Give the backbone structure.
Amino acid sequence: MLISLAFFALAALLAPVLARVLGPRVFWLLALVPLGALAVSVSAAPRVFEGEIVRESLIWVQHLELALSFRLDTLSWVMTIVVLGVGALVLVYCERYFAPDEPGLGRFAGFFIAFSGTMYGLVVSDDIFLLFMFWEATTVFSYLLIAHYTDRKASRGAALQALLVTTGGGLTMFVGLIVLAAAAESTSLSEIVASPPEGGAVMTAVFLILVGAVSKSALVPFHFWLPAAMAAPTPVSAYLHAAAMVKAGIYLIAALTPGFANIPGWSESLVALGVVTMLVGGWRSLRQTDIKLLLAYGTVSQLGFLTVIAGFGSRTAALAALALLLAHALFKATLFLVVGLIDHSTGTRDLRRLSGLGRQRPVLAIVATLAVASMVGLPPTFGFVAKEAVFTALLEGDALGILALLGVVTGSVFTVAYSARFLWGAFARKEGVEDTEVHRDRWDALVSPALLAAGGIGLGLVASVADPVLAGYAVAFPAGGHEYHLALWHGLEPALGLSALTLLLGTALFWKRERVARLQAMVPATVNAADGYWKVLRFIDRTAARVTSTTQRGSLPFYLGVILLVLVATAGTSLVLNETWPTSWRLWDFPSQAAVGLIMVIAAVAAVRADKRFTAVVLVGVTGYGLATLFVLQGAPDLAFTQLLVETVTLVAFVLVLRRLPRRIGVAHGRPRHRAVRAALAVVVALTMSIVAVTALAARSTEPIYPEFAELARTLGHGVNVVNVALVDVRAWDTMGELSVIIVAANGVASLVFLDRRTDDLVRPRLTRGRRGLLRQRPITEPSRPIGRSRALAETGEKRLAWLLAGRTLAPENRSILLEITVRLVFHSIMVVSLFVLFSGHNAPGGGFAAGLVAGMALVARYLAGGRYELGAAVTIDAGRLLGSGLVLAVGSAAVPLLFGADALTSAFIEGELPLFGHVEFITSTIFDVGVYLIVIGLVLDVLRSLGGEVDRQQEEEDPRTPHERLEGRADA
Amino acid sequence: MTASLTLVIVMAVLYATGVYLLLERSLTRVLLGFLLVANATSLLLLIMAGPDGLAPVLDNGTEISQIADPLPQVFVLTAIVITFGVSAFLMALIYRSWRLSKADEVIDDAEDLAIAQRDANVEAELLDPDHQDQEVDHLDELSAAHDLAETGEEEKQ
C-alpha cells in the first residue's frame, strides 16, 4: 500500500510534464497507477475474504508516535475497489473528454491523480491522524479540481464554498479525533473500533467526528456545496462527487458504526439526518432542468439513503450499506459520464432543449438506462439487490427502523421519479422541441460508462457471490434472528412489495410531473441552508472588520499602552499573589550608591521635562553614565567599561542626527487628561517592574550555579575573566544571536539612510605608495565630485603638510588644528589599545565588545576631526565587509568543531613554546571574540558613515553653502 | 536576601520616566524613553544578581566565593550592546522620518484608519438593506455559484 501511494505521488508530480508531451493521452498512462494499486488490492483479496486484516506500517514521527500505518479489511477493501476501479475508468474517460488544447490540462491531470492517491490513502489508513491528513488533502484537491475553470467566477466560488464547508467539518472532526485517541490511548482505527472507549467525552468526540463526516458527504445541513460543486469538469463530478470523495463520510460512519452504534443518539441522529437529506435531495432534484444538477441533487439524496443504512447498526444493515455503496458508485459515476458525453456532443445540459437524443445515440441511451435501472432498483441490477437488503434490514429493526423505512421508501419514490425525469429529459423526443444537433464522439468514449453500467448489472446477477465478500464487514455486528444474504431472488417478501410500490408511485409522480411542478412552485423554500452559509460568512466578514477596527486604531501609543497594561495585569497580579519577598531591606549597599542614584533620578525626571533635544539627550546620557558607576560599585568592571563606551558612542550618534532636527522637541502631545493617563500607566508599570525585581531577588533562595560556572570558565574555557569566557565560550550561542541582531541593526541603519545601496560611494583618498611615513603624507587629493567647499579650498591651494589625510577637504571655519593634531597623535595608540583589550579580554576586563567600541571611538575621533573623507581614509574597507568577515569568523568558530565531531562552538586549547615569545597559550574561542570585535566596529562604522558622512552629504546637496556662508546668510535675513 | 532600596527606587524611576516617554508621539522622545527603559532593565538584571562582590576575574588570588554572580553580568553586557544597535536603528528612523516629512512624530496608521472607515461603511449598509455590497469578492462568486446551482444558467463574466 505504501508503494502504491509512492507511485501516486510520483505520477502526480510527473503528470504536468508528461501532459505537455502527450496531451490528453497522458490520462491513459496515469490510469495505470490506480490499476496497479487495484492489482495490489485484488492480490490481497483472498486474505481479506478469510477475515484477515492486511497491515503495513512505517514509523514516521517517532516522538509523536505517528506511524504511516495502513490496513485492509473488508470495508476498506471494497472502498479501494471503488476508488481505484472508478478512478482508472474515469481517467480513461478523461482522455476523450478533454481537447488537446484544454488550458491547464497538466495541472488537472496532476491534481486528479493526486486526489486519487489521497483518496486511496484515506480508505486504507489505520492511524486516525493519518486518515485525517488524507481527509484534508482530498478536500484541498477537490477545491483545486472544482476550480479547474479558473476564469469562471462560479467555479471559484463553488470551490471556495466546498473548501470552507468541508474543512470546517474537518477541523471539528479533528478535535473529536484527538479526544477519541486520548480516551482510547490508541490512534489505530481498527483498535479503537474493536475496543471502543466509553464516557461522556467519547460521546462528544464521536459526534464531533460525525460533523466532519456529515459535511464531507454533503448531508443536510451542509448539502448545498455539492450541487454548486458541479461547476467542475464532469470527470471530477463523476469521480469526486459521486463515487469517491463524498463517500469518505459514509466510509467513516461505516467504519465507526461497529464500535459506536450503541452510543445513545448515534443511530437516531444518523437516521434522521439521512432521511431528511434523502427527501430534500429528491424533492429538489425533481425541480432541476439541468440534468447534471438533477444528478447532483440525486447524489445528495442517495448519500442520505446511505447514511441511514450505514448508521443503523445491525448485521443486515451493514451488509446492505456496503452493497448500496458499491451500487451507487457504479450507477452514479456512469450517469455523470453519460451527462459529460451529452454535454460534449450537444453543447447543452438543459432538458428543455434536449430532444430526440435517444434515437441518435442509442448506445448511450442504453448505457444510461442500465445505470438508471440500477438506481431505481429494477431487477436484476445490483441496485435492486442492495435496495432489497436495505428494506429488509429496516423491517427487521424496531420503531426506529420502521420510521427509517417510511423515510427511505418515500425517498425512493422520489428517486424513481427523478430517474425517470432524467431519462426522459436526456433522451426522449419532446413535443415542440426540435431534435438536438449531435456531434458524434468516438466510440471509445463510451467504454468507461459502459463498463461501469455493466458492472452494476453483472454484480446483480452474481449477488450471491458478492455476499460472502461483503459479509466480512457485517460480521462485526451481533448476529440477528436469521442470517440475511444478498441475492437476486428472496421470494415474495415484504421488501419486494416495497420495491414494487416505490416503482409504481415513482412512475406516477413522474407521469403527473406538471402537477408536481405546480405544487413545488407553490411550496416556498422556507429554510435555505445555502442562505444560512451565506449569512455565516457575512457575519464572519463583518466581525473581522469590527474586531480589526476596534483593536487596530492605528495609534502606536495605544498599542504600546495595551501591551503594557497586559504586562501589569498578568505579571503584576501573579507576582503579588506569589508573595516571595526579600527577607530584609537596607537603604543602600554603599552610601555612594545613594549619591549616584540620586543623580540618576534627577537626570531622568529632568529628561522628561526637557524641551530642548540636546538637553534631554545629555540628561539621558547622565543616567547611562550613572549606571556605569553603579556597575563599578557592584563589582562588574566589564559592564562599566562597555556601558561607558556605548553611552559615549550613543551620544555622538545622537548629536549627528539631532543636528538636522529643530532644537526644541514638539509640544507634548495629547490633552492633559491623556498625559495623566500616560503618567499613571508609567507609574504602574514601574511598580510592577519593582515587584519583578524584588521577587526575582527573593527567589534566589537555593545554591546559585555561578560557582560551578566560574570554575568551568577557568578549567574548560581557560580564562579567568568569567564574563568574557561566558560570552565567547560557555554561552556563545547567546552571543551568536546577539551578533545577528547587531548585523541586522547595522544594515537597517545603512539602508534607511543610503536607501538604494549598502554603503557610501565616497571617493577614497589616493595615497602615493611608499610615502605613507609619519608626517610625510601628501595632502589628500581633491574628491572628484564637486562639493560646495571646493571654492574655499581652491583659495588655500598650497601644498602644506596636513595633520590628517582629509583635513584639507574641510572648510576652514570647520577645522580645528588642535583636534586634528590630537587625533593624529592618539589614533594609532587607541587602535593598539583596542587590540590589547581584545586579546587580554579572556583574562582581564575587556573582550571583543569593549575592544570593538574602543576602536569605534578612535573612528569617531577621526570623523569628528576630519569629516567624512577622513573617515573614508581611516577605514578603506567597507562596513558591510567588516560585518561579513566578523560573522564568518564567528560562524566559522561555531562550525569548524562540527567537522571534528565535537559540538558547535566547542573551543580548543593550544599551548606551546615559540621562539622569541616563549610560552604561548591560545584558545580558539579568541577567534570568536575577534569576530565580535569586527562586527562591533562594523556597526560603529555604519553609524558614522550613515548618520555622519551621508547625512553631511545630503545636507550639502540640499544647501551647498558652507557653514560660514550659511551663518552670514542667516545674519542677512 | 537583602534588597537595596536605592537600586529599586532608581530602577523604578527610570522605568516610569522611560515608559512615559515611550508613550509619546515624538520619535526623539520615544528613543529617549527606550534608552531609559534599557538602562532600567540593566539595573533590573543587576538587582537580580544578588549581593555585590569582587569583579568576576579569577586571578591574583580572587576566590570564587568572593565574586559577584557573573551570569547576570553576561546578560547585561549583551543587553547593553543590543541597546546600542537598536537605538542606532531608531536614530536612522528618526532621520529618515524627518527627511521625508519634516516631522519626527508617529502618526496614526492610514491603513488601520481605512479599515475602521470601511467598518463604519458596512454598518451604514446594514441600516440600508437595499445597498449591495460590492466589495466582498468571494461572496459575489458564491452567489454566482448558487445562481448556477439553482438555475443551471451561468452568467459569463
